Amino acid sequence: MPRLLLLMPISLSLPAGVIAYGYRNYSPPLKPLLAHNNNYTALLRYLYLRSSCNTIPSQLTSLFCFKFFPTNLNCLHTGNSLFFRMERFWSGSSINKNKAMVEHLQHYGVISSKKVSEVMETIDRALFVPDGTPAYVDSPMAIGYNATISAPHMHATCLQLLEEKLKPGMHALDVGSGTGYLTACLALMVGSQGRAVGVEHIPELANSSLKNIEKSAAAPLLKEGSLSIHVGDGRQGWPEFAPYDAIHVGAAAPEIPQPLLDQLKPGGRMVIPVGNIFQDLKVVDKKEDGSISVRSETSVRYVPLTSRDAQLRGY
């Protein structure tokens, strides 16, 4: 598996050869780091780096004790943590264009699909992140209202997992559509004969996402009505345009919501993070006979899928 160099502007010594993995694990291997530093500061910084990338390794569950961590782990969701900011090597000035971001994701094995790369090159991420933030850094970012936009590698992963259910003419649902980025990507994949639906329960985010989409390559689809954004509780889906061939959920549910299962088309697929402190990205397939199969794709770290009031209170 290809590897990435990790630059860490903090006072943390690393053993020789400890570098960041190039696909889901953008951080140092945990055991060598702990063995070398032999302190919990290293472990805290490790957890911060993992959470700022959306991904957490499974071995973490057996190697740390919760009492050494901040009581409010929500600060770790977006990179707004108590620790120094840690940038991946490809967040520097050379990565200043959307196409270059996608090319790096391809080079390091995150994107293998030609269609996904084309769509992510077409939809400029800079249009969907807050002004003044580094749009092409592979990290989730706070977008206000205790919400985030996921890291580019997670968007790419989810699009690839759903690709076969995002063919022209199909229907796609984006739960927790936030700034509208992934909804726009879904819309480009299903095309003008399909339907892409975003559901966001924060009205301000829903309104701003429409403005973002209007500035993007997905604007014609929004204008003609094959792409739409709605204010609502995403846990209830959006029955009006169901059933959906593809459902993406951008926040972690304690369990898979039944309304989303009900709105998933036979033969369709849903990707959804499930869990609380420890979360897995679940791939949910509904067979033609209506039966459901679920598998875990990878360990992840997302903000909770919850009510609007709970989100605004900070969960």
Outline the structure in words.
The structure is a single chain. By secondary structure, this protein is α/β, with parallel strands linked by helices. The protein has helices spanning 30-37, 40-52, 60-63, 98-107, 114-122, 152-162, 181-190, 203-214, 219-224, 258-263, 308-312, and strands at 3-4, 20-21, 141-144, 147-149, 171-175, 195-200, 227-231, 244-249, 264-275, 279-286, 292-300. The strands form 3 sheets. A 7-stranded mixed beta sheet has the order 7-6-5-8-9-10-11. A two-stranded antiparallel ribbon has the order 1-2. It has a two-stranded antiparallel ribbon with strand order 3-4. Helix 4 packs antiparallel against helix 5.
List the helices and strands and how they pair.
Blueprint: E1 3-4, E2 20-21, H1 30-37, H2 40-52, H3 60-63, H4 98-107, H5 114-122, E3 141-144, E4 147-149, H6 152-162, E5 171-175, H7 181-190, E6 195-200, H8 203-214, H9 219-224, E7 227-231, E8 244-249, H10 258-263, E9 264-275, E10 279-286, E11 292-300, H11 308-312
Parallel strand pairs: 5-6, 5-8, 6-7, 8-9
Antiparallel strand pairs: 1-2, 3-4, 9-10, 10-11
Helix pairs in contact: 1-2, 4-5
Q: Name the poorly predicted regions.
A: 1-53, 55-95
Number of contiguous helices: 11
- Helices and strands, in N-to-C order? EEHHHHHEEHEHEHHEEHEEEH
Q: What structural class results from the helix and strand content?
A: alpha/beta
Which outline best applies? Answer: globular
Percent of residues in helices comes to 25-40%
Report the sheet-strand fraction: 15-25%
Question: What is the mean pLDDT?
Answer: 78
Tell me the strand order in the biggest sheet: 7-6-5-8-9-10-11
Number of strands: 11
Q: Supply Rg.
A: 19 Å
Amino-to-carboxy terminus distance: 37 Å
Q: Biggest β-sheet, characterized?
A: 7 strands, mixed
